[in-house]
Predict the 3D structure of the following.
Amino acid sequence: MAKIVPLSTEKHLNIKLTHSNDFSRFSKEHLIPVLAREIPSLAAEFPIVFVKNGETGQFIPVAIMGIEPEVNLYCQSNQWDAPISPIGFSNAPLSIARTSEEGDNVIVCIDEESPMVSETEGNRLFTDEGKRSEYLTARTNALLDVAAMHQQTQAVCQFLADKNLLVSQQLTIKLERSEQKININGVYLIDDKALNELSDEDFLELRKKGLLPIVYAHRASLNQMSRLIAKQNQFDKLQ
């Protein structure tokens, strides 16, 4: 179980972090939030769709990594076998949090229960004098970059929603284990019809904002459902 606390020299002076591609902590998360900027690259491996936050109404792009809830087909073992992974997978065990809802100040936090936390091997977070190490500075800058990209992603999703491009659709798949088809509900896709019916002015705005690669990558990524079905069929045979 995670134990996330603010990073401090008093508690973590001698802490080191190791690197790991063991993403089994996501084994029960079949929908993984991604950033708009990484959609074109992730689309070569995962279906990318949008889901709506029931509380805020905001849309979120996600990579589908499992057909059934609580089964991430890519994270059932400690061996990551895909050529690419979401940026968010590499943040752990560090994270950032705002010090207040109104302000922009943030603090770096650490999951003390993470297997990547060590006192004997890895990269130190602080020097003997209690100053941030070059490694921690680089990791912090990366976290801040991700936070900025998260804000950009929210803006992209809001723009797509404002242009009525995100349409609720049902994905229907067929698995080897069952004669019945399985429906995946609650997902939103960028609708081809709505895209084609955009005014010249709106389409130009879409292009100027650099969103066309994201739109087309999302649409192309849906072809990866066949890859996911094959992984599910293989997973079923091993159960």
